[in-house]
Amino acid sequence: MVRSSLLLAVAASATAVSAAVHGEGAEGSIMGPVAFLWPEDRPWSAAADNTAPCGSTSGPMNRTAFPLVGGAVALTIADDAYNVAFRIAYGNNPTSQSDFKTFVPSEVAAVEAGHQCYKAPTITNVADGTNATIQLEYWSNDSGRDETFYACADITIVSATAFSDSIPCFNVTVTEFEAPASSDAAPQSSVAPPAPAAVSGGDSGLTTGQKAGIAVGTIIGASAIIGAAVFFALRRRSKPSDSEAAPYMTHTKSAHSVESVPAVARQ
Ligand SMILES: *[C@@H]1O[C@H](CO)[C@@H](O)[C@H](O)[C@H]1NC(C)=O
Ligand SMILES: *[C@@H]1O[C@H](CO)[C@@H](O)[C@H](O)[C@H]1NC(C)=O
Ligand SMILES: *[C@@H]1O[C@H](CO)[C@@H](O)[C@H](O)[C@H]1NC(C)=O
Ligand SMILES: *[C@@H]1O[C@H](CO)[C@@H](O)[C@H](O)[C@H]1NC(C)=O
Asked: Domain 2-172+198-230 - what CATH class?
């Protein structure tokens, strides 16, 4: 499913991609401040997301195959969060916080809106086919005070050779993503002019034109990946809004509203 989403997302328009990219509009309607992008997490509900260990009213349902070697956990971050921790509990339905042991990485001090992905260590002493649950715990300032949030993703551990999925593992923040769009610079010619002789040495040796080309390429690449992520996320999260939706709508970033306005109205 991730693979086919990638293809579709590459075809998606840049407007659609940047409008929906970071999940900001989704916060409070289909997710809390932070959610798993991969593996798939349990359905979110505002009423349960501060309840340990899993922040969901649902038990394990859909398990994602997770490789013993080369696994990762990817996040969609709608709002700044702190003290992010990942833990794992082996078994079919861990229900106690004490079942969960430190997983990858031990602790992340802070994350900002966007996407982050952390590589998992090789899982040892666990048989192929073992079920497990990965817990995400973090603090976020929800409605004016810090609260502890939980989310869980249910997995079945498989050998690396049996794992055929591709993990949407990338890091991008809202600020990185929006910077080039706001300047709206036309992409530079791919033939860069000779470097000015006056510039002193010691830098990377790239001309401004070359750097711009790299930046544009990176952004285009990121757009395609994020588009895939968004498409993937929207496909699997189509829950109706609930009571927490309204306050969150008010801190949707301005880029979102601009992109939502039809082209005619913007002139
Ligand atoms: C489980 O996966 C199926 C098929 O992808 C989907 O229709 C269903 O909504 C999922 N259930 C949950 C609780 O996410
Ligand atoms: C893992 O969970 C699935 C259902 O989610 C179940 O069918 C399967 O038997 C479990 N595997 C083990 C080894 O218990
Ligand atoms: C949470 O955010 C509100 C509004 O931005 C701010 O007034 C408050 O000081 C914050 N609280 C904490 C504990 O960070
Ligand atoms: C994303 O950033 C975190 C923190 O800097 C780092 O540990 C992780 O390896 C990065 N992930 C990728 C895929 O680059």
From this structure: mainly beta
Q: How far is the CA of 140 from the centre of ligand 3 (A)?
A: 10
Average pLDDT rounded to a whole number, residues 108-135 = 94
Residue 106 CA to ligand 1 centre (angstroms): 30
CA of 170, closest atom in ligand 4: 13
Ligand 1 site, residue 246, Cβ cutoff 6 A: no
Side-by-side strand order, sheet with 114-119? 34-38, 72-77, 114-119, 172-173
Judging by DSSP bridges, how do beta strands 64-67 and 145-158 pair with one another?
A: parallel
Asked if 134 and 87 touch (Cβ cutoff 8 Å), the reply is yes
Q: Ligand 1 mean position to 194 CA, how many Å?
A: 56
126 lines ligand 1 (CB under 6 A): no
Q: What is the pLDDT of residues 127-186, one digit of tens each?
A: 999 999 999 999 998 778 899 999 999 999 999 999 999 999 999 998 886 655 444 444
- Surface-to-core class of residue 215, CB atoms within 10 Å of its CB (0-12 exposed, 13-18 middle, 19+ buried): middle
Domain range annotation of the chain? 2-172+198-230
Strands 81-90 and 108-111: antiparallel
145-158 and 108-111: which strand pairing? unpaired
CA 81 – ligand 3 centroid, Å: 12
Q: Which of 126, 130, 131, 155 to mutate to test the pocket of ligand 2 (most atoms within 8 A of CB)?
A: 131
